[in-house]
Amino acid sequence: MATVAGLALDRQAAPAADSRPLVQMVAISKRFGGVTANDRASFELLPGEVHGLLGENGAGKTSLMNALFGLYHPDEGQIYVRGQRVVLHSPAVAIRLGIGMVHQNFRNIAGLTVAQNIVLGLPTQGLLLYLDEHVQKISELSERYDLGIDPRRPLWQLSAGEQQRVEILKALYRQASILILDEPTSVLTPAEIEGLFLSIEKMTAEGQGVVFISHKLGEVMRICDRITVMRDGKTIATMNKADVGQEDLARLMVGREVVFHVAKPLQAPGASLLQARGLCARNDAGREALSDVSFELRQGEIFGIAGVAGNGQSELVEVLTGLRRITDGEVRFRGERLAGLSPKEVIQRGIAHMPEKTREMGVLPGFSIEENTALKIHDQPPFCRGMFLNWRAIGARADALMRTFDIRAPNRRHKANKLSGGNLNKLVLACELGRDPDLILAVNPTAGLDVGATEYIRRHLVEERSRGKAILLISSDLEEVLALSDAVAVMYQGRLSPCLEAAQVSREEIGLLMAGGHPEAVERDTRSDLAPSGPPHWIERQVIGYHVARPVEALREALSRKVLRALLADRSAWESVLGALGSIALSLLIVGGLIAMMGVSPLRAYQALWRSAFGSWAGIGESLVRTTPLLLTGLAMVVAYRCGIWSIGGEGQLYFGAIGATIAGIVTHDLPAWIHVPLVLLAGFVFGAAYGALPGLMLVHRNANELITTMMLNYLAIFFAGSLITGNGPLRQSGEIKFLPQSIPLAESARLPVILEGTRTHAGILIALAAVILVYLLLWKTVPGYRIRAVGDNPVAARFGGINVPRSIILAMAISGGLAGVAGMSEVAGIQGYLVEDLSAGYGYTGIAVALLGGLHPAGTILTALFFGALGAGATGLQRAVGVPTATTLIIQGLVLFFVLARRAFRAYRKGPG
Question: Does pLDDT of 256 surpass 80?
Fold first, then answer.
């Protein structure tokens, strides 16, 4: 065994059968795509031991324990449980071996009782569940380990600490002798932490082993017997607690010296900036969440609010950020009432927000670092030019923020969901402080972060205080509140305690208040007047070299930069195209096997399919005719799905667009074609957009499920179109043709011209290709498109970022419906010449497959729409030439869609959990 700096290193421990450790993990490696989570990491747990597992965010701690619990299967290495080598294919196997895991995010069902949650998933004898027997055993187990849980209580009535004890009970009830606790104290009060430690001591006294994953070095030093430190996926050191100090552990974790106590210079607060008086508000369930909350925050001051999560802190932050209405009281910022302001207006007033859950509320995980830095400034000059984004200015700012805040990533185009927890928090900090705000709302800013990242975040908050910024610190970490704050208060059951001077209050007093006690308040004093310093030196008030251009000039500039070249250079476009090609190739390979089983050469069959679709001008023309509506409906789905709206309403919107185009082509006569065709096109788009916006409005205002509403609206549109051209329908053609319901023919000037002589190929294909460029420009180059994608990526973060989420949803659905409506227009004005009942060959539904196969990218839809169009055009020729049924092409379509979805699922698996 080697040693470094006097500490024992255990890089590759060999199994020791004689000592019979509970767990041995030897040379474990696990990779997710190109990311190595564990690199030949080793770990050992002895009976009766609490073994601490430390490391920076992304060091591989949780991944290693997930492998022990069967959630991941290691790529390399061996796992031994009680001396026997095991292969843990699933958590069920781990549970049978006596391994339990309490995750940082609880895995409970709020509507069930404690006992029902605990027995969920247990094997039963017969169909009946004898719950009373389980209740009795759970009660005995709770008393045995002093967990204090009533198994009959509904889970939703329990505090966060009690819910965690339910998770521990669940593991113990499954006879776990190896218990993994992942960040177990992150949501507990001081009293609950003491109770947890007492329960752990009782478990280990009976010979059970506990793995304690934490970033809180004080707790690790108190409860653990041995400690293992990980860095970059490797096991750096394993040591006895008696042989090491907190400073040694921190240095091993981050590879450098860490300052534990951030120096906070003495300074007097400035003028009053934020005043809350008698605030009252209700939560989402309609119950009172804030009751008579009053406080004052001054410039150059950190006001800390301590408390266990769920006591009204979230509602208070939402009130201050414009996301929740108050029922009584008032809150003023610089003398102006905040109540009634939108989140965007609050941001514009100079209020920054560092949310509690960074991944869920603070960033757009599917966006790049560059795109994330634009969240709250994308519509402000010089970062936009009219409605067009100025990516050069945004990129320059992103580079500056990455350098200033030490965000470690290859470049600014690195995806946020690939950043470690510490870098993710740095990104949020950079985005907020980069706007030079006057007030900073910091909610649990270091929760779940390692000591290095914690030091960094706290140091920046203190620096902002020194520059005269007001900081409202809301945290469940009592030590953090006391270390950073000038004044403190405690939030308990929606009420705020009297303000206490941080320097004159003890940890015990605050802990008692967090548990609902009422110690005597200490008056807050005023310090000597010290002038706050100026703004951060790195804030650039102007971005030199950029100007605000008029919208027309911006559009001319965007088009002059060769949009096609930019689209082809887009990496995501190429990924979409290559992914589509791979799915198509696999599908053709499998169907080729089926064709061979029919006694037909697959090569001969595919040659017949190709010749029918592309072997003549007539075949090419027919393929393009079928490609046109597929490309337009595919683009429609791209817009909707990029906004996170799972619409299946393309078929109905296509029919409504066809109705609009028919009306415009019938009621307007004697117009030149250069006016009439655009008018018909506009009518198709407007009718489709109106019909597409309808489910968007129902979703926003009535929370109606878009899958159900769009499906029902499909049938309604088809039936409505039929009613217009049958019986006494107002558009029905009278006269000789009575057996075939159809509308009055469109005027010849309203028809789309044929562009390929001898075929049915019309100008609709050109309109569809133009739509590809316009959709690309919309989604990636404009302010409304950025908002649409942001809502689809993370609607919560978009809302906190000041984006009007309902408006973006309605806009996306309207544009989606308009594109599908243009598809209907192309069928009426390009092919039929009138409205008929069976206008569409399911183009609206097939458009879903086109969008998914194209990777939800406009460029990808070109290839996939052409592929599906060629399949439809060549199906008849395939059957006629080699006798293979036309339904074979439907099998190909189904397999292609299957492989697309399988590819997305596999990519999500390789990334691992966020």
Answer: no
Q: How far is CA 274 from CA 77, 173, 334, 345, 441, in A?
A: 56, 50, 7, 16, 11
- pLDDT tens column, 282-338: 988 788 999 999 999 999 999 999 988 778 999 999 999 999 999 999 999 999 999
Q: How many CA atoms lie within 13 Å of 440's alpha carbon, on the beta-carbon side?
A: 34
One-character DSSP codes across 233-263: TEEEEEEEGGG--HHHHHHHHHSS---SS--
Sign of CA dihedral 629, 634, 636, 637: positive
- List the domains of the chain with CATH numbers: 3-104+179-251 (3.40.50.300), 272-514 (3.40.50.300), 562-911 (1.10.3470)
Distance CA 705, CA 505 (A): 51
CB 131 within 8 A of CB 210: no
Taking the C-alpha atoms of residue 102 and residue 312, their distance in angstroms, rounded to an integer, is 26
With b meaning 16 or more CB within 10 Å and e meaning fewer, what string describes 264-287? beebbbbeebbbbeebbbbbeeee
Q: In the Cβ-directed half-sphere of 818, how many Cα atoms lie within 13 Å?
A: 18
pLDDT at 554 over 50: no
Cβ-contact 147, 168 below 8 angstroms: yes
Which run of H or E residues covers position 641?
A: helix 617-642
- Cα separation, 131 vs 154, in Å, equals 14
513, with CB counted inside 10 A (0-12, 13-18, 19+), is buried
CA–CA distance, 94 with 72 (Å, rounded to integer): 11
pLDDT tens digits, 738-786: 567 899 999 999 999 999 988 999 999 999 999 999 999 999 999 999 9
How far does the chain reach from its first CA to its final CA, in angstroms?
35
- Paired tokens of 491: 């939030």
Q: Under 8 Å CB-to-CB from 300, ≥6 apart: which residues? A: 267, 268, 269, 270, 465, 466, 467, 468, 469, 470, 530, 532
Q: How many CB atoms lie within 10 A of CB 206?
A: 11
């299946």: which residue's tokens?
648
Could you tell me which of 395, 404, 403 has the C-alpha nearest to residue 369? Answer: 395
Single out the residue of 681, 849, 853, 701 nearest to residue 751, CA to CA. 681
Radius of gyration of the chain (CA): 32
Are 269 and 299 a contacting pair, CB within 8 Å?
yes
Confidence of residue 80 (pLDDT cuts 50, 70, 90): very high
Q: For residues 641 and 775, what is the distance between their CA atoms, to the nearest angstrom?
A: 13
Strand (E) or helix (H) holding 453 = helix 451-466
Contact call for residues 47 and 202 (beta carbons, < 8 A): no
- 8 A C-beta contact, residue 532 and residue 299: yes
802 φ, ψ (degrees, to nearest 5): 90, 5
* Cα distance between residue 819 and residue 847, in whole Å: 11
9 φ/ψ angles, rounded to the nearest 5 degrees: -110, 135
Q: Cα angle at 909 between 908 and 910, to 5 degrees? A: 95
pLDDT of res. 735: 65
